[in-house]
Each structure stands twice: as C-alpha cells, then as structure tokens.
Amino acid sequence: MYRGSVHDFPDFDPNQDAEALYTAMKGFGSDKESILELITSRSNKQRQEICQSYKSLYGKDLIADLKYELTGKFERLIVNLMRPLAYCDAKEIKDAISGIGTDEKCLIEILASRTNEQMHQLVAAYKDAYERDLESDIIGDTSGHFQKMLVVLLQGTRENDDVVSEDLVQQDVQDLYEAGELKWGTDEAQFIYILGNRSKQHLRLVFDEYLKTTGKPIEASIRGELSGDFEKLMLAVVKCIRSTPEYFAERLFKAMKGLGTRDNTLIRIMVSRSELDMLDIREIFRTKYEKSLYSMIKNDTSGEYKKALLKLCGGDDDAAGQFFPEAAQVAYQMWELSAVARVELRGTVCAANDFNPDADAKALRKAMKGIGTDEATIIDIITHRSNAQRQQIRQTFKSHFGRDLMADLKSEISGDLARLILGLMMPPAHYDAKQLKKAMEGAGTDEKALIEILATRTNAEIQAINEAYKEDYHKSLEDALSSDTSGHFRRILISLATGNREEGGENRDQAREDAQVAAEILEIADTPSGDKTSLETRFMTVLCTRSYPHLRRVFQEFIKMTNYDIEHVIKKEMSGDVKDAFVAIVQSVKNKPLFFADKLYKSMKGAGTDEKTLTRVMISRSEIDLFNIRREFIEKYDKSLHQAIEGDTSGDFLKALLALCGGED
C-alpha cells in the first residue's frame, strides 16, 4: 500500500507546468504561491520531467532559476524537492562533511535509515554529482568505530531474508551479550557486524530474545557499552530496525520542540519521506505526542515555507482526533498485533535473598537510636525488601523492642523522605486507602489521585482497598466517594470502586455492539439510536466493567467502524473530570505502564515537582511493573526515569527514589 502524502498529479503535462513556472518567475518579483502549489503537488518523477521540459522550452536550468528567484528556507525546501531523492541525499551528505566540523546527526539519519537500494543509488548519485567516492570522503571525515559502522551501512548489503533461522537468532543474542555485558570492555566489532548486516526481521527477533535472555532491552546495553557518535548511530540503527516511521516522527518532533527550529532536519525529512511513509509518520507522531504533525509545523514555521511544508504533510489529523482512512487501517493492524502480544510485567523491587527480619529490625533500631538518624541504612533496608518482608520486619520490631516501627520512623525522618518510607512500610491496600482518604479530606478534592488509583487497580486490588478503607476509617469507600463527588463523575468512580470488572477474554460480537454504543454517545455514529441517558449509562458500563482484553477489541472495532481513535474523541467531545476518568481507563487498557510513565513525566516536568504523585506511583508500582514503566519512559521521552529523578529531586529523597527505580537504562 502506498504510504506517501504526495502522489502523481493526474492529467500531468510537463510542458504546461514548465510554462507555468516560467511565468511565475518572469518579470519583477515571483509568484511564490504558484510555485509552491505546483511543485508540492507533483511527484518527484514528474518534477524531473518538468526540469527537462523547462530546459527544452527555454534553454535554462530550472533549479538555477528557482535559486535565483527564491530565498532562505523556502528556497532550500523547493530546490530539494526538485532534485531526485538520491541526489538530494548526496547533497545533504556533502554539506555535512564539507568545511570545518561534521554534521554527524545528518550522517546518522541518512545512513541508518536508507534501504539497500536507496544506499546504492546514493553512492552512484554522489559519484555523478561530485566526481568523488562517497566512502573515501566519509573515511576522510570520520574516525573510529563510528567510521567503521558508517562504511558498513554504506555498502547496502543488509540481508533481505524473510525466513529467519532460530538458531542464528540465539547465536547472535549470545554473541551480543558476550561482546558487551559479559566482557571487560566491549567488542564493538560484533555489534557492527550483527547490526550492520542482518535483516530487519532477523534483528527484531534478536532484540526480543535479547530482552528475554538479559532482562534489558538492546538499547540499554548500547547506552551502557558504547559512547559518543558511535552510540548515537547504533541507537538510530536499532530504532530504524524497529520502526523507521517512528524514528522519523521522533526526529521531526525534536526538530520543532523547544526554542528555535532545526530547519535543515525538518526540510530533509519532509522531502525524503513525502513519497515513502509520511502517512505512517503522521499517525505515529499524533499517537506518540498527542498532537498532529500538521499542527506542530503550523505553529512552528511561517510564510510560504510553512505553506509548502503543510502541503507535503498532506493533511491535519489533530483537531477532531480523526484518523485519515489509510492510517486507521494501520492503527487497526497495530491493535491486532498488540492483542496477541504478551508483555511480562516486572517490578524493580523483589524479595531479598537470605532475608533476616531479626537482623533488619535491629539495624533499623540502631539507625534511629541516640543522637541523629542513619537515613542511609533506613533507605537501604526498606527499599530493598518486598512489602511482605517489610510487614515481617514491623512485627519483629514490635516483638523485640515493644515499639511501633512506623511511629519511630515518623519521629526520626520528615518531609518527602518520610512520606516515601512510611508509604513503603504500609500494606499496598492500606496505602491506597490512605491516598484515597487524603484525596477527599479537607477543602477541595484531588480528583486526579482518585482517578489514578481507581482506574488502574485490578479487581483483587480494589476489593482489598475497600476492606482496608473500612478497617482504617470505619466508613465504606462508596459512602466516602458519594459524599465527596457528584454527577457522572461520582457514578464512574463508584462503578470502578465495586471491583466488578469482567475477567474473561473478548467477545467479538459484543465488542462491535459496545463500539457502536461508544460511537453513538461520542456523536460520530452514522445512525444514532436510543435516548442519551441510556447511552451514557451503557457507555460507562462498557468502560468500567468490561475486561481489558475485551476493551482492547472494542477499541479496535471502534477504529475499524469510525476511523477515529476513541481516546482522542473522548478528549475532544468530553470535558472535566468525566473526560479525565474515561481517558485514564482507556490509556490503562491500552498500555498501563505507559500511563504511569506519563504520570511520572508530568510530575517532574516544568517548574516544581509534584512529589505526591511521584511518591505514590513509585511506591504503588515498584513491585508490579516499574521495570516496564522505565522502558516506556525512556522510549517516549528519550531519557531514562533515573535521569529524570536525578535532575528533579535531591538528598535522601533522591537516594530512596533511585533505589526504587532499580537501575539506569
């Protein structure tokens, strides 16, 4: 299926287009609007025919005339569009290695992402355009392992086998592991050979097996074992193996985020991908960054340059949260794949080996006895024991010293560290019950905390929370929610707090009916039926009581039925706490570790830190899926959770959080 945003222009006449461009540049000034409209709506092959016709009709070089008439970023964009793609890449690389210094990011982007055929065309174009050998020029301008990998990629000899040998996959996993993690120093040659030559399908299986074998993604090993431009190149290769469109979506986002715009990167990608996979890039961009590529370009650029980029983008999928039809089918296929994927959830805190509650109780007593407090010992013991072991320590502490460990800790430590340590010492259900109580007491209600807990806990966890709430506060959780919230939001929370979510698999027929209910209540169904109150109740029932596997199927059917993503439609059509609750449920169903990764990121971004959310998530997920959350965090935000915590907290609170985090990715 064609995934570009620029197509062959129907009823194409190169002579007519050449005349139109000549007229647009004739006389004083130029008609930039006509130039951009014409060039961005022709395919690259058609543009080459226009160049030929222009020379035949007027005896002039079209690119030279465009350079003369246009200026700045708009000129660079239009001129790049007029070159054959291989020559465009050749020009980018020539510029990257000319003069003082080297644009390593440009070299990495092009050589890590091109196919064998594109690489061969690039080498030939470079030779034709500059009468120089590309490999020799790259060797002359780079060095070390970075140079070696670039040369390997430049050969364009990556295997294309669709049939993968399981034995070779296992062998490559072992070779990579022994070349990095198990070796004093690193055998870079093995990384270069395997990542530079094996087929994409083969390497995807290698990456999956590597994670199962070593417990960490290949990216984490590359970050730990390699450095500098070589590390960046190898990470780019891995990203392109996993998903080339996702790699370019990330590059585009970084080119426009923050102050200033990296226009060279923006132009290069928009030109080179407009006839390859721009629709996929757009889809991934909006899903990953919750805004459309179109809207970000629109807000970050101006003038004819902006208009031309938006034409190459091909459409805005943001305002209505709408999937354009081709991307809807891609999204549907992605859902199909995710439905069969089974991700093992892993915490970062587990039961300590050779656990001795007696020794731990004595060590904690010693740490708090006398003048001053040994916070380091408290942190070390409590963050490296499972919750079940901490409860044994509490009991042993009371048996030995006749004292309440929680009370002693409360008197010895304070602030954020105290909230974290005391939270870790509570049984999970009692900790969640306390967080819900605090969210509802005093002036105002912390709706976000209520949503986070009730929308993400399993039936067993919800039932345990209800019992703990009753035991600790002598009031039912339902009564507390009823008195502190109102309207549809209260109904949603009470429904979630019953812990009656179905636990079976999917029912396809029921999923189609549920998707239809969602389409009707969100007002995008072709034939709405039923009164609104009834539909609202049915929609709440679907999201609050259907099983996770079934809801994933509902979301797939919703996309298939409407060409919309349910999460984006909820964000557009609903508002307030009801919207936030439904979005949290949908995100949790789609990918719960990613939901919590987002919560952690938002708790630390910008001025100030939301220590309450940060503490709550780190405590509640440390034995469930914090390892998975770490992986989602670095994948989405391009920095590790460890780095984010390190940059946003300090002192003993920082040390305790990093201990829970469990490692640097």
TrEMBL record:
Keywords in alphabetical order, please: Acetylation, Annexin, Calcium, Calcium/phospholipid-binding, Cytoplasm, Phosphoprotein, Repeat
Q: Which GO terms describe its molecular function?
A: calcium ion binding; calcium-dependent phospholipid binding; phosphatidylserine binding
Q: Name one GO cellular component term.
A: melanosome
Tell me which SUPFAM superfamilies the record gives: Annexin
Xref: SMART domains: ANX
Q: Where in the cell is it found?
A: Cytoplasm; Melanosome
A single Gene Ontology biological process assigned to it is: apoptotic signaling pathway
Annotated family: Belongs to the annexin family.
- Give the protein's biological function: May associate with CD21. May regulate the release of Ca(2+) from intracellular stores.
Record's protein name: Annexin
